[in-house]
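Researcher: Here's the sequence for the chain we discussed earlier.
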Amino acid sequence: MIVVTRSEEETIELGRKLGKELKRGDLVLLGGELGAGKTRIVKGIASSLEVDEVVTSPTFTLVNEYPCKAGILFHVDLYRLDSFPKDDIDIDDLLDRGIVVVEWWERDRNFFELARARLIVNIKILSEEEREIEVKWFR
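Model: Thanks. This is the structure I predict for it:
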């Protein structure tokens, strides 16, 4: 499915709709260039999961954790890394405890191609406000 959003709020709303379909154990992979709106999608997902905290990009912390109705929403950002830190983070443990959303998953395609992704979202910038968002569900 391809969706075009025309504002940040529309991008967040798409995230809300996607988040309503997620459950504990789901892995969500977000791709797109810098400033495309990956964190906006996460904000929408978090909203649908009843996260009460302000969602921010974990670019420097690597992982932000948000208690939610599915356990914990783990928001991972690989922007500063070349690969997923498998030796430091057990993705299976995170998935057992909640939902994992990974920005910049393309940094380690080999690792994530073996993972059990439920949803892949790729965002393309069309203009300052418009985004073309490709959504692929794996059931």
